[in-house]
Amino acid sequence: MTVDSPSRRRVLGAVSALGAGSIAGYLDAGTDGQEEQTRSESPRQVTAESCEIPVFTDKYVGFSVGRPEGWTIEYTGGIIWLAPIAPDDPTLAFVYPGWLEAGASVDDVASEFVAGLNDANADGGTSLHWNAETGSLTGTRDGKAVEGEVWTEQSGQYGLIAGGLGPEGAWSSLRETVANIPACLDLFPSVPLVVRTASASDAYGATTWEYAAPEGWQAGGATSLTIDVYGARNEQDGLYDAQVSVSSYPVIPGTTSFTHEEYLDAYLQSQREAGVYWEILDRGEPRLLGELPDGIGGSWELKAFPLLMNFGYQDMVVVVVTAITNWQNYTLSMFWWRAVAARRWDELAAISAIVQSSITILSHQPGAGLSPPVADSGVSDIIAEVGDANSAAQDRIGDQFSGALLGNDRVVIDDYPDTEILVPSNNYDPAQCPEGQRPIPHPATGEMVCGTVL
User: Fold this and answer.
1) Which of 163, 239, 264, 373 is the least buried, fewest Cβ under 10 Å from its Cβ?
2) Whose CA is closest to 151, among 132, 167, 124?
3) Which residues contact 207 (CB under 8 A, 6 or more apart)?
C-alpha cells in the first residue's frame, strides 16, 4: 500500500503575523543536523512574511526549522531547542511537533512540557509558570528572571508547541525572531535506518552487537568488547567522514584512582602507538553527565570531552564520553567515541549521534581473558542506558504524543520481511495506514509505503 508524502505545513502563521570560530562553534551547537539556507517562495511553503530567517534542515531526521544567525540548535527527547551563542544569556526558543494520542489535547501536553522544564532544571534555578489563557511564560531560568510565551496549535491529531523566553524586559524585542523559528517548520520523509548485527569472538568472549544506520553505513570492525561503525563515505577520496564507536575495556587491577582524563589520554596514546596520527587542535569544556547504576551494586560516572582533532588527512570534531567505576580493587572503564569531519559537522552530527545511540549488545559470553567483575557488571545495560539517555529525557511529555522527533518506530515492509527499519515516529500521519502500520519511505525507492510496526 502506497501513501502520499507529507506536505509542507504552515504552522503558527497567525502568531508570526502578530508578532563561533573555535570549537565552541561546532560543539556548543549540541546535536546539529544538516544545512542552512534561506527558503524561497513556493505555494506549499510559508510566506516570506512568516519565515524571514535562515532555515536549518536535517535530511536524516526529516525536518526544517528557522535558525537565527548566531544561534545554536539541539534536538533531544522530541524537542528542538535553539539559543544564542552568548555566555550567561537565558534566552531560549523551542519547537515541539508530534502526533497526538486519541483524546489528548495539545494544551495538556504544553502544561506537561513546562512542568518537565521545571523538573529537569529545578536544581539550576529554573522555575517557570505558563498562563494557558494568555500564553505568557514567566519565572526564572538559571536563576535569572525571564519572560516569554508558549504557543500551541492543533489540527486533528497533529499538535505543535512552540515559543521561547528571554531576559525580563527583553521579550518584546525577541518575540518576532522567536516566532519566525516555528513559522519555518517543515516535516518531510526522513532517511530510514536499517537494523543490522555484527558478531565477534576472541579471548575476551563472544558478543553480538546491534546497531541501526542509513544504507551505506557499516560496521568496519567489531570485537567482543568494541564496535566501530563508519558512514558518509567521501566519493573523492573514498574515506568515511563519520565514525562512531562503543568500547568496554578489560578491568585495570589496583588502579582505583584512574580518572576520566587519564583514561582518555591512555586511549589516545594507544592509538598513536598503533600508528594512528592525531593532533588535538582545540578542546571544549568537559562536562560531567551524571552517574548510572550497574549490576553489581556500583555506579558508573560519565564525562564528555569535546575535541577538535587532526588525523593527518582532515580535521574532525570528536566527542568522547568516558565511563568509569571503581569496584573493590578494580577500575572498569568504557567509552563512546564519535568523530565527524569538521567541514560536515552540521550535516552529520545528528545522524552520527543517532547511530551511536542505537548500538547495543544482544548477547555476550565472557571469555577466559576477561576478568570476573566485567562479566557481572551489567556493561550491556549501561551501554543501552547511555544510548537511550537523550531520547528518554522528555518521556513523560512524549507519552501523550504517538511519537517524537528522534523517537523511532521499528517497522518491516512486505518485500524486506527479514529487515527491521527504524524511522522517526512523528513525520507522518498515522491515519494514512491501517491500524498497526505506519507510513515509511521505502529504503530502495523512496516511495511512501505502509510498514508493520513491530
Assistant:
1) 239
2) 132
3) 199, 200, 201, 222, 223, 224, 225, 361, 363, 364, 365
Distance CA 332, CA 248 (A): 8
Q: Please report, rounded to a whole number, the percentage of residues in the chain having pLDDT higher than 70.
A: 72
Cβ–Cβ under 8 Å, residues 198 and 363: no
Q: How many CB atoms lie within 10 A of CB 422?
A: 21
- Under 8 Å between Cβ of 425 and 97: no
Residue ranges of domains in the chain, CATH in brackets: 13-187 (2.60.120.1690), 193-389 (3.40.1000), 411-453 (no CATH)
- Return the SS3 of 132: coil
User: Poorest-confidence range of 44-53, 310-319, 416-425?
Assistant: 44-53
Mean pLDDT of all residues in 54-66: 87
Grid coordinates belonging to 216: 551505506
Res 414 pLDDT > 90: no
Q: Give strand ranges (E) for 329-447.
A: 330-341, 360-366, 408-412, 421-424, 437-441
- Whether pLDDT at 167 is above 90: yes
In this prediction the pTM is 0.72
| Three-state DSSP class for residue 8 | coil
